[in-house]
Design brief:
Shape: globular
Order of helices and strands: HEHEEEEEEEEEEEEHH
Keywords: Signal
Number of strands: 13
Organism: Christiangramia sediminis
CATH architecture: Distorted Sandwich
InterPro entries: Cell_wall_metabolism_enzyme (IPR050570), Dup_hybrid_motif (IPR011055), M23ase_b-sheet_dom (IPR016047)
CATH class: Mainly Beta
Largest sheet: 8 strands, mixed
Oligomer: single chain
Protein name: Peptidoglycan DD-metalloendopeptidase family protein
Strand order of the largest sheet: 1-2-5-12-9-8-7-10
CATH topology: Glucose Permease (Domain IIA)
GO molecular function, one term: metalloendopeptidase activity
Number of helices: 4
CATH superfamily: Glucose Permease (Domain IIA)
């Protein structure tokens, strides 16, 4: 059977937007937010405002409109949140793709699908408002997750509502409602949901990494930013 990674890669033939508006592939700049980035040492990562300024300056210096990155990235910035930084969890490896654009930017569905579930994951450092889509394409079922949305994005949603590729799905939230982060979309692909509803781990511990990487391949195989 074809691997899930190869399946995702073949679903789209080129750049597939998940942010609405006039963004082109050339508007995106890759950003490294791992523990290997020395610029993060100068930053007060506990401050969402300071992080927003850091992202804005990074984009200005590269004359870009959006930043992306973060898949399978070991990050120290999660140390600020008890959700991740505790003896039981010890989660610090990011397995989604982050797309850094302004608050209230439009989020669009990259593929045909339907609403699987949604909820406000309101813990400090969590996703905040989150939507999960279910897709059944080319004989295979899988899911996509959209985190750090505005609370308004969850209004009037109904499980099972169909969406088409390019449809407006939501908007990004600001730090007051998105888990206290600089505005960005957490986008993740899952082959299996493991009975989870409105939520799925996007940051995992090293001991579980192999399983999660198999179930959640690089979302950029699909988006091709």
């Amino acid at each position: 059977m074809q691997s899930f990674s190869d399946f995702l890669n073949e679903l789209t033939s080129g750049f597939t937007p998940v942010i609405g508006g006039n963004y082109t592939q050339e508007d995106y700049a890759y950003i490294d937010l791992s523990e290997n980035n020395p610029d993060l040492l100068k930053l007060e990562v506990a401050s969402s405002e300071a992080f927003s300024i850091f992202i804005d300056e990074y984009l200005r210096n590269r004359e870009s409109k959006a930043a992306y990155g973060g898949y399978n990235e070991l990050r120290t910035l999660y140390n600020r949140s008890q959700l991740f930084n505790n003896t039981e969890a010890n989660r610090n490896i990011h397995i989604g793709l982050d797309v850094w654009v302004p608050a209230f930017s439009e989020i669009i569905s990259p593929l045909d699908g339907k609403i699987h579930s949604y909820q406000d994951n309101a813990n400090f450092g969590d996703y905040g408002p989150t939507i999960i889509l279910e897709h059944q394409l080319n004989g295979r079922k899988f899911y996509t997750l959209y985190g750090h949305l505005s609370r308004k994005s969850l209004d009037n949603l109904k499980i099972g509502t169909e969406v088409k590729a390019g449809d407006r799905l939501a908007e990004l939230g600001d730090f007051n409602e998105n888990g206290d982060y600089a505005p960005h979309l957490h986008f993740q692909v899952m082959e299996e949901m493991h009975d989870k509803i409105g939520d799925y781990p996007g940051v995992v511990k090293k001991e579980d990494l192999d399983m999660y990487l198999k179930n959640c391949p690089d979302p950029n195989l699909l988006l091709k930013i």
